[in-house]
Design a protein that fits this description.
The complex is a heterodimer of chains A (381) and B (301). Chain A is an alpha/beta fold and 381 residues long. In chain A, 33% of the residues lie in helices and 20% in strands. Chain A has helices at 17-24, 91-94, 106-119, 139-142, 144-153, 190-196, 203-215, 233-246, 265-274, 297-315, 338-345, 352-366, and strands at residues 6-9, 28-31, 47-51, 58-60, 68-69, 74-76, 79-80, 85-86, 100-103, 125-128, 158-164, 181-186, 197-198, 219-227, 253-260, 262-263, 286-287, 293-294, 330-333, 336-337. The radius of gyration of chain A is 20 Å and the shape is globular. Chain B is elongated, with a radius of gyration of 29 Å. The chains are: A alpha/beta (381), B alpha+beta (301). The interface between A and B is medium-sized, with 22 and 22 residues.
Chain lengths: 381, 301
């Protein structure tokens, strides 16, 4: 079922494959090269604006801070805004334009990716399309993911990550992905999905979709992020982990991330205004060294510890540190401190670049034995 | 708006429809200018725009043009240098004008004279500010809250603000930043605990009514309670670390500091060494296993 009612297309994009997808989906569109900015992030969620690629679309995930370890993933800004409406979503405080914009010119996006990857052929790039939107939520209307999957298949040193809260996977199941695409889910406890992740696929629907892509042979990623603190979090997150691992094949899990709720201080007011029924901003929080509000460290660590124990049990693996052997999904924290890694996993990456290297090492060892073993110096270590 | 002329007048009356506004302007204190402002209405009757206590038989008045559609409020704003008014007064003026003027666009037209942009959203924000509970508004005014700070107050639930204004505010005299901090922290607890009753039960508010305590002491006791309630994890672990450090029985010239937000693991040890004996005591302290144990205390197992 489409969430999009209609579309506006820039005249430069009329011959793009995306238009064919729009027509196939039965989405009416008009041509307009001067679409007015929408002030509120919600006001453009039901209309698609197909735009040309302007400037550089490939960037590094914008959450880099030297006090918190980032995974150094690259992001391809192919979409801006999202049909979903999660209470904690940073887009409500980030977007200057509430239009849901999709770049129509896939070829230009892919050319930029190829050019970047060619410049450093000795390193492996992980590239996601989820920075400013959901990678698959609009797949029915745009067909963009299918075209990206096909393109990434032929880029030797790049892996595409499609991260989603949707269950829109049917159209990608038949793609010849050759394991070069990781389909990943942002997953949360059942009551959080119900109360905070509005308009997204329900948890059972996401897990059913996870099973489908697993059966289609894709590598998968699991993001238990952002974890939220609420009464009963222990049992709900435990169920989530167990149900998720059951829905997939451990040998196809490329990576698993863990993170907790965090947001800029000014977003607190936005959340309270946009989601008056939500209570997520009233929990105890501190201001971290990156300026973001987050739960105090002892609370975060208690939550992580519980998840790690559950994951260890569900995966049948006592050691989740990415620094030890490679015979397991790569586990990492998203934007956590060195000492949290150290205290919970026994070791910490020495830098952002080091974690990037550990990803490459794990992926090469587990899935891409045909590629050369990654060398640390190629990752700036 | 140009000045039309200078006239010497004998105590012209205030324009009746301006009376609520002059009551608001009383909060600015007495006006002691060497001249006043006035305007003539359609019937050529002159009305004073500036209240003067002196009843002079002949006093110089600058006669201003005015817009009848705005009830002469445009002239009143100019005569009162409205752009320099405090935020709360601007809010109260706009709220009153919204009642008196039939057209919201007329109110918007007055906003530039208050030094404000004439946007609907800004007008709505100011009207919301004006509708805050009365005593809270008075305190906000006395603390000289900025527009942004005053807007923050409008985020809070009415029932919470009423409770804060009657249960907390009469018994303390906080600075502006502490006033805002208390409002925000207690509001978080209000939602976390599920309402006023639970919040009141969780706080021992007797200290606020203890007249033997100074206002500062009462405020300090309240802030400590609010911190403990609002930041239970930080309170618990900081207290734990504090107790551990006390158990080390460090010499008085050695002190230990740590990040109370608990984000940064580790501690800073400072020593004021003034003798060889101090030096030996410092070396001895550094060699204690129990001091190393402090880091383990910061692992939060």
């Amino acid at each position: 079922m489409t969430k999009i009612k209609n579309a506006i297309v820039d005249s430069s994009q009329l011959n793009s494959d995306l238009i064919k997808s729009l027509e196939k989906a039965g989405i009416d569109y008009v041509v307009d090269d001067d679409v007015a900015v929408k002030k509120h992030y919600r006001s453009g969620k039901k209309q698609l604006v197909v735009v040309e690629k302007k400037g550089e679309a490939l960037d590094t995930c914008a959450t880099i801070s030297d006090k918190y370890i980032c995974c150094n993933v690259k992001v391809l800004k192919s979409v801006s805004n999202c049909p979903y409406d999660c209470s904690y979503c940073f887009l409500q405080n980030y977007l200057n334009d509430g239009n849901t914009k999709v770049v129509g010119d896939d070829k230009a996006l892919i050319d930029e990716v190829k050019e970047r990857c060619l410049k450093e052929p000795q390193r492996l790039f992980r590239i996601g399309t989820w920075e400013l939107g959901d990678s698959l939520a609009l797949e029915y209307e745009t067909g963009q993911a299918q075209r990206l999957i096909n393109a990434f298949r032929d880029i030797p040193n790049a892996i595409l990550e499609l991260k989603t809260k949707s269950d829109c996977v049917d159209s990608i199941l038949a793609c010849d992905h050759q394991h070069k695409t990781v389909v990943s889910w942002s997953l949360n406890a059942h009551s959080i999905v119900e109360k905070q992740e509005h308009k997204t696929a329900r948890l059972a629907e996401r897990l059913a979709a996870l099973k489908k892509v697993t059966d289609a042979g894709y590598l998968v990623g699991l993001h238990f992020d952002p974890m939220l603190y609420f009464e009963g979090w222990e049992s709900e997150y435990e169920s989530l982990i167990r149900d998720t691992i059951k829905a997939t094949n451990i040998n196809q899990i490329a990576w698993i991330s863990l993170g907790s709720l965090r947001f800029n201080p000014e977003m607190k007011k936005k959340i309270e205004a946009n989601f008056p029924a939500s209570t997520i901003t009233y929990t105890e929080m501190i201001r971290g060294d990156d300026g973001k509000m987050r739960y105090p460290k002892p609370l975060r660590m208690a939550m992580y510890r519980h998840i790690i124990h559950t994951l260890q049990d569900a995966l049948g693996c006592d050691d989740l540190s990415p620094q030890t052997d490679c015979n397991k999904p790569l586990f990492y924290f998203c934007m956590e401190r060195w000492d949290v890694w150290q205290d919970l996993l026994g070791s910490s990456p020495t830098s952002i670049q080091h974690l990037d290297y550990l990803f490459a090492r794990s992926l090469q060892a587990r899935f891409f034995s045909g590629l050369e073993s990654p060398q640390k110096h190629n990752y700036g270590i | 708006m140009p000045v039309k002329e200078l006239k010497f007048l004998s105590s012209p009356p205030l324009f009746a429809k301006h009376k609520p506004y002059h009551l608001l302007l009383d909060s600015l204190g007495p006006v002691n200018h060497d001249f006043g402002y006035a305007f003539y209405d359609e019937t050529e009757t002159v009305f004073c725009l500036t209240a003067h206590h002196a009843k002079l038989t002949s006093f110089p008045y600058l006669i201003l043009d005015y817009n009848a559609q705005f009830l002469g409020l445009d002239a009143l704003l100019i005569a009162s240098s409205a752009s320099s008014w405090p935020v709360i007064l601007k809010a109260q003026f706009l709220a009153q004008a919204s009642l008196d003027l039939s057209n919201r666009h007329d109110v918007l037209s007055l906003m530039p004279l208050l030094g404000l942009v004439d946007q609907q959203s800004v007008l709505s924000s100011f009207i919301k500010i004006a509708h805050l509970p009365k005593h809270l508004l008075e305190v906000a005014s006395s603390k000289k809250l900025s527009y942004k700070q005053a807007c923050q107050l409008t985020r809070y639930d009415d029932s919470y603000l009423q409770w804060f204004q009657t249960t907390i505010l009469p018994f303390i005299d906080p600075s502006c930043s502490v006033f805002l901090e208390l409002l925000e922290s207690l509001h978080n607890c209000f939602h976390r605990l599920g309402g006023i009753d639970s919040l009141t039960k969780a706080l021992a508010l007797d200290c606020l009514h203890d007249t033997t305590l100074s206002s500062d002491k009462r405020l300090l006791m309240l802030r400590n309670q609010v911190f403990q309630l609002c930041f239970p994890t930080q309170f618990k672990y900081n207290e734990h670390i504090d107790l551990y450090i006390k158990s080390l029985n460090l010499p008085a010239f050695i002190s230990i500091h740590w990040d109370k937000s608990l984000e940064n693991k580790g501690f800073q040890l400072s020593a004021d060494v003034t003798s060889e004996h101090d030096m030996q005591a410092l070396v001895s302290t550094l060699q204690q296993d129990s001091l190393q144990g402090l880091l383990k205390e910061m692992s939060y197992d």
